[in-house]
Design brief:
heterodimer; A: 316 residues; alpha/beta; Rossmann fold; 6-stranded mixed β-sheet; 18 strands; B: 332 residues; mainly alpha; ABC transporter involved in vitamin B12 uptake, BtuC; 14 helices; 0% strand
Chain lengths: 316, 332
């Protein structure tokens, strides 16, 4: 569906990535991720036609993107950008209606088909009840869903999203990712999004384009984890990806103190986290033992009633 | 449907308001006329009404509509609420043209200076020069805000040149120049109207033709491009329209301060929309009635003495802008 051949991206005096051969299929949810400066936004902007490639080809449905007219491009790609939309007096409906831009007449009048599409798009993002609210009256999460509805109304096989979850709180970030996951299945569109949310990307993406300073690694999340590509791209002295669950773990500084913990779950798990965070090693062979049962922590012949108290006693 | 009929009502209200102010503007003037003068055959009344007050009131309508639409176009292009019809340096360019003509043009034949066309032509040339410079730069810069800065800088350069000319000119021509900067709606005779009206009409038509792209620009240039809008072409058409609207009217009436910036805000508040389908006609009507109101206000001292329109429009426009900023603070 979308394909790049030997694509070089960057700016006039500064090449960002070269020789990219990427491919996206219908229904794909592709997460574009990588460290800052690796070229996520540049690649998205180039795919979207907002920026010229330095070299190489981008083809969509067999057509070269560089040869498309503005109109043709607007029927193939729709965009969700990080640009703020702060227009006064713009309703959610009017914003989504602008997605119909390529299909309306010279005056921009909406036909019945356009109105039906707008309603459908608003329903797909669960925002139908806010259609006549002004943009400054809804939350940031709802605003992002409205912009996604605009992209859906544009009725394009491909949707490009630049950091759609930035500036949102955790429930909204998950909400947006789940929404995109659902949309890619239901609408058969291809979604390509750049994101810094590694945990979410690993759990939701069909495919990851992992951008590193040395090129782009392509694969499904699990393969990239298994082959250690993530660790290579992001890993540092400070943290590593857990080999069992894929979550990133911070490498804490470790002090000389060692303790052994026994007792009931989940108390010992959280206690272990707290100890590691404070630089205390947890070891089977340690002399000091913390025994946990019935919610009470026993150590040095003292009873502590919370992890915080336990830590205080240890530190003394 | 409900908002549609509400808007229709508002438009009817605005049309009635404009019509009333139009009649009032004809009825009031530096010479007091009895009401029946409007329909009398007295040649003096006829002369005053048909050759003086009628063209003046029409000029108020045309100019008010033109500079307000120009202000709206600039606010949409730059996505900046403080943009106005003159941000690209049109009025500074026009005043430079007029200054060169009046202050340095003593070598021109006297009859040409007297004719009045010289003033108009030099204002048009000055305004056009600045806009052509801005236009040529508009193809080179990516960001609209850079264009805004370039426009302001050209305006500054023109302003400095005017100051230098003023400094080295004789008091008589200086006075003529200062009077031009006061602005005057009464300088537009039927002869001038034949030139001004078609030029402004073309500008308004260009604005109406690109209304769909203007709505797309509300989301910013990147989103607009994503919707298939050619930024360079739309920008070009906007600048051409502004040149026709603000450039032409400034040439004939002198600069009219603040109105073009304030009116679009009033209309946005009145109709609670940013949609150019409604904004464009709304701005035309609101701008026309506000300038008519200003013109009526200039006649307040009465009996042979009128106030400069440029001062009145600033007195009306500037408080509107302050009010809008305070209102925005309280809602956000």
């Amino acid at each position: 569906m979308l394909q790049t051949n030997n694509l070089h991206i960057g700016y006039e005096h500064h090449s960002v990535q070269s020789n990219l051969n990427l491919q996206a299929n219908a229904r794909d949810l592709i997460c574009l991720t990588g460290t800052n400066g690796a070229g996520k936004s540049t690649l998205l902007r180039t795919l979207a036609g907002l920026q010229k490639p330095l070299k190489g080809q981008i083809t969509i449905l067999g057509k070269s993107v560089q040869k498309l007219t503005n109109y043709e491009r607007s029927t193939l790609f729709s965009l969700v950008l990080t640009d703020t939309i702060d227009t006064e007096n713009l309703t959610v409906h009017d914003l989504v209606a602008l997605g119909r831009f390529p299909y309306t007449n010279w005056a921009g009048n909406l036909s019945e088909i356009d109105e039906a599409k707008i309603t459908e798009s608003l329903q797909q993002v669960n925002l139908a009840n806010k259609a006549h609210n002004f943009l400054n009256e809804i939350s940031d999460g709802e605003k992002q869903r409205a912009v996604i509805a605009k992209a859906l109304a544009q009725d394009t096989p491909l949707v490009l999203l630049d950091e759609p979850t930035a500036h949102l709180d955790l429930p909204n970030r998950i909400d947006i990712m789940l929404l995109l996951r659902r949309l890619s299945v239901n609408t058969k569109k291809t979604f390509i999004l750049s994101t810094h949310e590694l945990d979410l990307a690993l759990q939701m993406a069909d495919k990851i384009w992992l951008m590193t300073p040395n090129g782009v690694e392509i694969g499904i999340p699990e393969d990239l984890m298994l082959t250690g590509k993530f660790q290579e791209a992001f890993g540092s002295q400070a943290f590593k990806f857990d080999e069992e669950d894929g979550h990133c773990k911070i490498n804490h500084l470790v002090g000389p103190l060692q303790v052994k913990i026994i007792g009931e779950k989940p108390a010992i798990l959280w206690l272990q986290r707290a100890l590691i965070r404070c630089g205390i090693q947890v070891s089977e062979s340690a002399e000091m033992t913390i025994d946990v049962h019935d919610g009470i922590f026993y150590l040095k012949n003292i009873e502590a009633h919370s992890i915080e108290e336990t830590l205080k006693i240890l530190m003394d | 449907m409900n908002t549609l009929s509400k808007n229709t009502l508002r438009f009817v209200g605005l049309i009635l308001l404009t019509a009333t102010l139009f009649l009032l503007d004809i009825a009031f003037g530096s010479v007091r006329l009895p009401l029946e003068a409007l329909f009398s055959d007295n040649p003096i009344y006829h002369e005053i009404i048909y050759n003086f007050r009628l063209p003046k009131a029409l000029t108020a309508i045309i100019t008010g509509a033109a500079i307000s639409v120009a202000g709206l176009l600039m606010q949409t292009l730059f996505r900046n609420p403080l943009a106005g019809p003159y941000v690209l340096g049109v009025s500074s360019g026009a005043s430079l043209g007029v200054a060169i003509y009046l202050l340095a043009g003593s070598f021109l034949p006297f009859a040409f200076i007297q004719s009045g066309w010289g003033l108009v032509i030099s204002a048009i040339l000055g305004g056009m020069l600045v806009l052509l410079l801005v236009l040529s730069i508009s193809f080179r810069v990516r960001q609209a805000v850079s264009l805004l800065i370039v426009g302001i800088m050209f305006g500054q350069i023109a302003g400095s040149l005017v100051t230098i000319l003023q400094n080295s000119s004789n008091p008589d021509s200086l006075k003529l120049f200062v009077i031009w900067t006061f602005g005057s709606l009464s300088a537009v005779s039927w002869n001038y109207m034949q030139v001004m009206l078609p030029l402004v009409a073309i500008g308004l038509i260009v604005a109406l033709v690109i209304q769909k792209s203007l709505n797309g620009l509300l989301l910013g240039e990147n989103y607009a491009q994503g919707l298939g809008i050619s930024i360079v072409r739309t920008r070009f058409l906007i600048i051409v329209a502004v040149a026709l609207l603000a450039g032409t009217t400034t040439a004939f009436t002198g600069p009219i301060a603040f109105l073009g910036m304030a009116v679009p805000h009033l209309v946005r508040g009145l109709f609670r929309t940013s949609d150019h389908h409604i904004m464009l006609p709304g701005t035309m009507l609101c701008g026309a009635s506000l300038l008519l109101l200003c013109d009526i206000a200039t006649q307040l001292p009465a009996d042979g003495y009128t106030l400069p329109i440029n001062a009145i429009s600033a007195l009306v426009g500037a408080p509107i802008i302050i009010w809008i900023i305070l209102k925005k603070k309280s809602t956000s």
